């Protein structure tokens, strides 16, 4: 098919997310097979762009990667890209290589970099890749499903030992300032308490009361899923143990949530979103973010997307509290 541009670049930026490889594969293959474009892979996100770390990518360069976690292009957080000088250098590298379009796979921090590059004349399209699900314009971000399934399996395992020892367990999950991972895994893991930044008011006395009521009802364990943004789970465990007299342990799941084989859902959404990004570039579009809303793949202006706000679904939160 006809494309308005002939050469594109693709990079992954910010925290990695399972499914990023599927997105890279889709970008490369859509560009090469559908539009006959040339594709450059940019290593280490914006850091590699500024340092001119580019590789040629053809159809075969993305063989055998769809089922792997991580990102074959590596990723980085790059302070230099936050400066005008860094942004100018990044745009110059694109121009030097004849890169007219760039696909940025990452979170909203990465989209801010893409926004700046668009302002410097590089057609940029963002693809939402983050386990946090915290990008307002889209109902799905690549990596979320794999991360919640990993965390859920960990909670199931912790529950076994928690029951055997008749303990309280606090399981801390990732999400930066967002509570989506905690909410989903708290529901799926049958947690007794779910603490998320968006709703938790810091009332530990209420948690202690809840634990005591559950104990009276004969509960053998008490699982608290804590979103990382809420606060230090180890300190909380000490306070709850002191207040209840029940052995309490904290487990911080950490980066285990970012790795592993991407689920079918992540591979499919990544494949679709990568293709949409290239379709947009082929149409000559710039400064857009790919999104999934109401059962459709769509796109938004980056300024508009970054200005949007997102909150957890109230009915989902209330239901989670009732089920706990
Ligand atoms: P994520 O993309 O997952 O939200 P970060 O917030 O760490 O992750 O952002 C990833 C990278 O995007 C940063 O290291 C930086 O290089 C770039 N970036 C973030 N904010 C800006 C900004 N305001 N201007 C330019 N680049 C930015
Ligand atoms: O944005 C993804 C994420 O995993 C967050 O959930 C977490 O707060 C952060 O990245 C951790 O970053 P790092 O990999 O730098 O420790």
- The percentage of residues in β strands lies in 15-25%
Helix proportion: 40-55%
For the largest beta-sheet, the strand count, sense and barrel status come to: 7 strands, mixed
CATH domain topology of the largest domain: Rossmann fold
Note the total helix count. 11
From the spread of the alpha carbons, the general shape counts as elongated
Write down the secondary-structure element order: EHEHEHEHEHEHEHEHEHEEHH
Total domain units: 2
Known CATH architecture of the largest domain: 3-Layer(aba) Sandwich
Q: Would you tell me the structural class of the helices and strands? A: alpha/beta
Report, as a whole number of angstroms, the end-to-end distance.
Answer: 53 Å
Description:
It is a single chain. The protein is built from 11 helices and 11 strands. It is an alpha/beta fold. The protein folds into 2 domains: 7-143 and 262-307, Rossmann fold (3-Layer(aba) Sandwich), CATH 3.40.50; 146-258, Rossmann fold. The longest helix is centred in the middle third of the chain and has 22 residues, at 144-165. The radius of gyration is 22 Å and the shape is elongated. The chain binds adenosine-5'-diphosphate and 6-O-phosphono-beta-D-fructofuranose (F6P). 6-O-phosphono-beta-D-fructofuranose binds at residues 15, 107, 130-132, 174-176, 228, 258. Adenosine-5'-diphosphate binds at residues 13-15, 46, 77-78, 81-82, 106-110, 112-113, 116, 130.
